[in-house]
Amino acid sequence: MHLRETICxxxxxxxxxxxxxxxxxxxxxxQALQLISIGxxxxxxxxxxxxxxxxxxxxxxxxxGMNLFGIPMDEEGIKYASIGRLKRQHxxxxxxxxxxxxxxTGTLMSERRRKQLLEDCQKASLPIIEDDVYxxxxxxxxxxxPLKANxxxxxxxxIGSVSKTFSPGLRIGWIVGPEPVINRLADIKMQTDYGSxxxxxxxxxxxxxxxxxxxxxxxxxELKCRRDYMIEILNTYFSNIATWxxxxxxxxxxxxxxxxISTRKLFEKAIQEGILLNPGNIYDKDDHRxxxxxxxxxxxxxxxxxxxxxxxxxxxxx
Length: 318
Ligand SMILES: Cc1ncc(COP(=O)(O)O)c(C=O)c1O
What we know:
It holds the Pfam family Aminotran_1_2. The protein is an alpha/beta fold.
């Protein structure tokens, strides 16, 4: 109960008004998705999502018999022509979106797009899963308010987690939604693992109450330095062979390789040299042009050596 109360206060800062009974503590964002797929969806359900998407890289939805339907993106986020028309054609059960610092493209959905998306989905009675695990990791200014902040109808299930900001090993996240939905998911959570570790919950509660703003200031500034460093390296080695976005938060740069080479072969060559790549087809099976670069974990030296070598491999393959 303590953690849920603390999360209510924390979410107020994002414009989300909720109560402890509308929150379920889960073992990370991934478990939130697992519980939703078991508890709210049926075999064969169609899920709309951004294309490319993190959802494609995890197997919970596919293994639960879901059909994933990707919608393209532009620099403002998911680019749907008409949710109403798409809904009539495909009859989706819900739409999954990562509005802030999207995995894998780093895209930040604009305020305008958020408003449109929420309005259109509500008009079409299409529930939304909003995955906001990167929302706190902005560099210059906070992202626009989450969709959940403007959700008066209870049609958004909001997912948060401390995995990207505090510690992935604690396995603590949360789902915010209408009470009946939360109660159903809580039943399944109970049957799955009897509840998340109370030591982890205790630590996250303490962190959110006492230190997260200070810690986040540090994490943001460190991440921004790493982003700047990676961009510098890309400018040095990739300016003739790739294009990329400059993310305003989160972990990822979505690198588009210009020459037509096989990213699969590039992956194989790189792994032989001890460099693990995340090619675009993990996030969209038809993508053969992109690499997802992450500046969050590797050291600056590894980033430099790895990227320099990748640029050489691409040039050799041209
Ligand atoms: C968009 C997104 N959602 C959820 C997760 C899973 O987070 P957690 O470690 O909290 O399960 C990830 C992890 O990469 C992610 O990128």
